[in-house]
Amino acid sequence: MLSHDRVWAAIDALAERYSLSASGLARRAGLDSTAFNKSKRLSSDGRPRWPSTESLAKIIEATGASLDEFTGLVEGRGGLGHAVSPPRRSSVPLLGFAQAGAGGFFDDAGFPAGQGWDLIELPAQSTESSYALKVQGDSMLPLYRNGDVLIVEPGASTRKGDRVVVKTNGGEVMAKVLERQTTTSIVLVSLNPDHPDRDIPTSDVEWVARIVWASQ
């Protein structure tokens, strides 16, 4: 039976078969690099969001796969009749901290959106919703240096002591240590002792995402 989960699993499996991430597959097909992100697979109210037939046609053409091959992946069969396992991502969307404060790069939940993202290959496993931010400048010394890459996981639960990236409604993007988060404010400890800690009203925070890996 054709199902939402199986169609998306087939897209992931097709990407893996041709040594691509889901984002890389979208780019090869001439689509937005975030078109197949996990955040795009459900609508804001939780209803399943299906890929368009045009998108499916484009990824089949871009990889040189046949329709029968893709149908087999939807049915849960590999090329030799084996079940398809979930792919491991090897690349994620990448953006510099300086660009992250501009509008259009994130949706309301802090997931990558729109154009302008690069892709970066990773030595570590990541999820479909992960993305990378490149450190620019020395404001995060001594923990993170200029050029370090931080892997960020939007939607992941956070607790005291976690390293997080926070974006304010005013467009400021910062990496801090979460000290306390309440219904009225979020208290952040600076990574660099030369920079002040922050106590930001919750109403001024656009999103908070946990840092899960750094290229140190």
Protein described:
With 216 residues, this protein is α+β, with helices and mostly antiparallel strands. Helix content is 20%, strand content 29%. The chain has helices at residues 4-17, 22-28, 53-63, 67-74, 97-100; strands spanning 89-96, 118-126, 131-134, 149-154, 163-168, 173-181, 185-190, 198-201, 205-214. α1 crosses α4. The chain starts with a helix and ends with a strand. The model is unreliable at 79-89 (pLDDT under 50).
Question: Which characteristics define this entry?
Answer:
216 residues, 20% helix, elongated, 5 helices, nine-stranded mixed β-sheet, alpha+beta
Short description:
The chain is α+β, with helices and mostly antiparallel strands and 216 residues long.
- What is the helix fraction of residues, given as a range? 10-25%
Structural class: alpha+beta
The main β sheet shows up as: 9 strands, mixed
Q: Which ranges are low-confidence, i.e. pLDDT below 50, for 5 or more consecutive residues? A: 79-89
Task: Give me the secondary-structure topology.
Elements: H1 4-17, H2 22-28, H3 53-63, H4 67-74, E1 89-96, H5 97-100, E2 118-126, E3 131-134, E4 149-154, E5 163-168, E6 173-181, E7 185-190, E8 198-201, E9 205-214
Parallel strand pairs: 1-3
Antiparallel strand pairs: 1-2, 3-4, 4-9, 5-6, 5-9, 6-7, 7-8
Helix pairs in contact: 1-4
